[in-house]
Amino acid sequence: MSRRDEFEDDGRTIADMSGLERPPLFPKRPRSFQGEKEEKQSEKKTNPWEDSSFTWGERIRYMGVALGAALSIALVLLAGLALIIWLITLYAK
Question: Is the distance from CB of 47 to CB of 55 less than 8 angstroms?
């Protein structure tokens, strides 16, 4: 069958797509999961960060290391930007 021929429907069904629906954007959770979650929350009223096995000193050290890593990345990016600006001003005469 070429493109110029007229389409002729022979009535055969290749795949029945009539029962398919679009899935919801925000699917609902099964009630069994919601019930279990509510029961666990009612049993345990403490905050999850209160159950941590870290001491205050360890927490401060971890926060300091994370802050140091973020600042070192920012320093490298700013140094690269300063180098690019210096090269532009050096050769822009």
Answer: no
